[in-house]
Amino acid sequence: MTTPPVAVITGAAQGIGREVARVLAARGYATVLTDLQEPAETGALTVLGDVSDPDSVASLASQVRSTFGRVDVLVNNAGVSLLRPAEETTAEQWRRVIDVNLTGPFLLCQEFGRDMLAAGSGSIVNIASIAGLQGVSDRAAYNASKHGLIGLTRTLAAEWGGRGVRVNAVCPGWVKTEMDVADQASGGYTDDDITGQVPMGRFAAPGDIASAVAFLADSGMSGFINGVALPVDGGWTADGSWTSLRLRKR
Ligand SMILES: NC(=O)c1ccc[n+]([C@@H]2O[C@H](COP(=O)([O-])OP(=O)(O)OC[C@H]3O[C@@H](n4cnc5c(N)ncnc54)[C@H](O)[C@@H]3O)[C@@H](O)[C@H]2O)c1
């Protein structure tokens, strides 16, 4: 009997990560759910921990090794938002966002990348953002972390692709999750502000992001795709139209 492929998903308790875990489990992966908070769903293994803490990441990797003896897919999804004008962002706030959104994925890539390199195969999918491709005001730390995550993705793709490990990023547009609800409460923007920017006229759904992750995870589907930053944004980053022109096309 062959053992199922193993997928590790960070930030799996809610939002995009929860949906990614559900979709990968439905596709036959044994899922490892990790988060600061207890996930509502159960995967094959659940490990609580902080992605920005090297000891916590090492302990997660050793539990995956002892439980499954393999890892096939890593989805770096855990992230935090910060809406703050650049001139008011404290060094502590800056560091926390970079720690969770960029250092965390680096630590996880290192730990699980070593196992994938030893096995000669694996797929890493980093959840960046369209804020990793463009500037958006009042998000200096967040945008820098996501630009950095895309840089990390491209570098690891170059470094590890020749040894069977693909590394890609998914760049969601705005998604209706707990993160967006909290951001709207603190950030003074509305649903219409967002949908007005999107040629397809809606928010992304968590399932839109999870489908792209499942595609990039699966070497049978995306085996020669390595180092891309794939926008899943309904055309937001492609569209240089001014808003009234865009809205006339609806
Ligand atoms: N919602 C959006 O509009 C949107 C758009 C683009 C990109 N993203 C990115 O998608 C990812 C998921 O976002 P979401 O909207 O589902 O957010 P969310 O806040 O709803 O969920 C994030 C999850 O990550 C966990 N988490 C936070 N810090 C952690 C840490 N240090 N260690 C472990 N787990 C931690 C949280 O507990 C939570 O369960 C993030 O990286 C986010 O930046 C979101």
UniProtKB/TrEMBL annotation:
Gene3D superfamilies for this protein: NAD(P)-binding Rossmann-like Domain
Keyword Membrane: no
Assigned keywords, A-Z: Oxidoreductase
Pfam families reported in the protein's UniProt record: adh_short_C2 (PF13561)
Family: Belongs to the short-chain dehydrogenases/reductases (SDR) family.
Protein name: NAD(P)-dependent dehydrogenase (Short-subunit alcohol dehydrogenase family)
Gene source species: Kibdelosporangium banguiense
